[in-house]
Design brief:
It is a single chain. The chain has about 160 residues and is mainly α. It has two domains: about 1-85, no CATH class; about 105-155, no CATH class. Helices cover about 55% and strands about 0% of the residues. It has seven helices and no strands. The protein has helices at about 1-40, 45-55, 60, 65-75, 125-130, 135-140, 140-150. Helix 1 runs parallel beside helix 4 and helix 2 (about 45-55) crosses helix 4. It is elongated and about 90 Å long.
């Protein structure tokens, strides 16, 4: 009987420890949410981004989340725009080389109709690549799969 009671007490202690850990985690989450809301971050995805960037800071430099939001996050080049500031600019993108050949212009099609195949009446990869995204989306999915699978001639 005493052993049964000791087992129940041990089980209750384990349950209590679990509940305390969950409560502490919830309290931490609420504290983080409050810090983000005070800083003007209201969007859930933006909140997630700030948390993600915080987790990427080395532990030795990280500090408290509230301190991170109130100071370091505003200096972060990815997060600064969320706080209305500006950070160091990103390096310029490498120049893109000019295209070797411009795609052949295609005649606009009316809504709800599929673009006409090439002059030979056959769909080819070259014909498909010359279509705009809007025109490509008008082609039934099964037909596009055939083209991707190589069933259309290259011509």
């Amino acid at each position: 009987m005493i052993r049964a009671l000791e087992a129940k007490i041990a089980e209750k202690d384990t349950t209590l420890a679990t509940i305390r850990a969950e409560a502490q985690q919830s309290q931490q989450q609420a504290s983080e949410d409050a810090a983000l809301l005070r800083a003007g971050i209201h969007d859930a995805e933006d909140m997630e981004l700030v948390r993600w960037r915080y987790e990427r800071v080395p532990a030795s430099e990280r500090g408290d989340f509230v301190d991170f939001v109130s100071s370091k996050a505003k200096e972060d080049r990815y997060l600064s725009k969320l706080f209305g500031g500006t950070a160091a600019p990103l390096p310029p993108a490498p120049p893109t080389p000019p295209p070797t050949q411009a795609p052949a212009p295609t005649a606009p099609t009316s809504a709800g109709t599929q673009p006409a195949p090439s002059a030979g009446g056959q769909r080819t990869v070259k014909w498909f690549n010359g279509l705009s995204e809007l025109e490509k989306n008008k082609i039934p999915h099964s037909e596009r799969i055939k083209g991707l699978a190589g069933e259309w001639p290259m011509g």
